[in-house]
Amino acid sequence: VAFVVCRSLEGLKTFSYLEELILDNNLLGNDLLLPRLPHLHTLMLNKNQISFQRNTCKILLDHLAEVVPSLQYLSLLGNMACPNELVCKEKDEDDYQRYRYFVLHKLTNLKFLDTRKVTRREREEALVRGAFMKVVKPK
Asked: A biological process (GO) annotation for this entry (predicted)?
């Protein structure tokens, strides 16, 4: 397990066999770039600055799919991208479920997202509708 408190993640490339990475509370945003970490199965990005503005979260999820192909456990709690009703009173369980479908559509190997196990039904729904589930605010 590596604990990193910084905004630059350049040094991680020397840890190519890293399996778990906790990057909570680091002010990381959608421009987060990780080196290729083929053995990483757990990534915690709680309480950062990841949001669903424009297409940037899609780009981040595509990046994660490419550089951490073994990812099975991801947590984004406490970020604006994760519409949790405990953090944002305007959000409800439907918003959170749409977010889950969208993330699962992009990261198909996940077994756990945030604190919940990915169900077979969620995985099937993500395949069918996940690309259309991005949570956005009307202007």
From this structure: melanocyte differentiation
